[in-house]
Amino acid sequence: MKIRFTYSILTVLFIAFYCFSPTADEAQAGSIKGTVLDKLSNQPIGELTVGLYDQNGNLQQSVLTDTDTGEYLLDNLPDGTYKVVFFTFYTDYIQKWYNSAEDAYSFATAESINVSGTAEEDLSITLEKGAKITGTVEGSNGVELAGVTARVFDIDGNWITSAATGDGGIYSLTGLNNGEYKIQFRAGDTGYASEWYNDKYTIDKADTVTISSLTDEVRNIELDTGTSIS
What we know:
By secondary structure, the protein is mainly beta. Helices cover 10% and strands 40% of the residues. The chain contains 2 helices and 18 strands.
């Protein structure tokens, strides 16, 4: 009886150790945390998406900053080298990649972060508000058009952000850094023809909008009546 009892105790202890001990991957999982603040006010920026990329440009994980504190945590990270981006779509802030030495606005200029073992990297950052491109979209008959999507691209054709026109045909593209852009107006089912700013129909021929200071730019546009196939 003693032998059986001792064997039972050892079996229970082994199962408990096996079930509750961290696996090799869990034991070596690292993390990246930080706080996102407004550059001028030093107030936290909540509900902002933080993305984690590997060195090949593949998204590995994304989280939202805390609504009240602006804090974020990317955890359970295997050993490796990563880059971190702070997405600012549909906000007034300029999108930024983490770099402790300088401002980085692209994957290529982002700082590589090495994660090893259970180390916790602290990557806090401040973001500043960018310029806006605003304006009114009207039809050729003077009607203010709601439901038109304004889309802004950089000079290389990469999509930056979008905004739909509301009442009064007004749109506002926010969070833009200094640079050169092109704007497309997608008319959808409004009955008008889509076009690029200004009166162009391809991105190559579209007028370039240059932002040289973080101030508002006004670009109004008039869409021609479209044709239909039925």
